[in-house]
Amino acid sequence: MSSLVVLGFDGIHTADEVLNKVRPMQKEHLIDLEDACVVERDKDGKVHVVTLADRKMVEIVDSPRGQIRDYTWSPRGNFLAFSMGVSGNGFSSVYVWNAADGKVSRVTDDMFNAYSPAWDPTGSYLYFLSDREFAPQISGIEFNYASNRDTYIYALALRKDVKHPFPPESDEVSLA
User: Fold this and answer.
1) Is the pTM of this model over 0.85?
2) Is residue 151 part of a domain?
């Protein structure tokens, strides 16, 4: 049985305490801790993955503003998605770190603000929020304009064989 269990902690020391309490479950074959690791973000904006078995620490990204707070593991635990702003326009992009080769890839462009990545349970799609709809309205509060409904949920297919989650429907009428 292979499954990913994600737990959040305030620090790596708290993760160690929980790990020590869970170790007896491993002896009973209820859980496998061989690949247990922790994602840690320090005060300088660097994000590390720490393997708890050997204490190996790998820096995966250095955020210039230290604003990475929305990292999430893929269902199989081999990818880590997060959003980070690196361009000067103030927008974030969604990135994916590959545990196999250690590479970080940007999967959204920097033309729009994209954040809050989430994996679907099968690992076929990466969902994220993005601010892409700009339809300004005259506002009674702001002196110039206001906008609402500018954030939507988007799905990114992660493989070529994945079908479109919302395939286009034909509006053509056929006579029988």
Assistant:
1) no
2) yes
* CB count in 10 Å sphere of residue 81: 22
Residue 31 domain boundaries: 12-157
* C-alpha distance from residue 67 to each of 6, 35, 84, 86, 132 (Å): 21, 27, 7, 10, 21
DSSP H or E stretch at residue 62: strand 56-62
CATH number at residue 135: 2.130.10.10
Q: Using one digit for the tens of pLDDT, what is the confidence trace for 60-106?
A: 888 877 678 788 888 888 899 999 887 778 889 999 999 889 899 99
Is 173 part of any domain?
A: no
**Cβ-defined contacts of 23-32 (< 8 Å, 24+):** 31/5
How many structural domains does the chain have?
A: 1
Structure tokens at 62: 């250095």
Query: Shortest CA distance to 65 belongs to which of 91, 103, 102?
Result: 91
Residue-wise DSSP of 73-92: E-TTSSEEEEEE--STTS--
Inter-CA distances, 128 with 23, 37, 122, Å:
35, 24, 16
Is residue 65 in some structural domain? yes
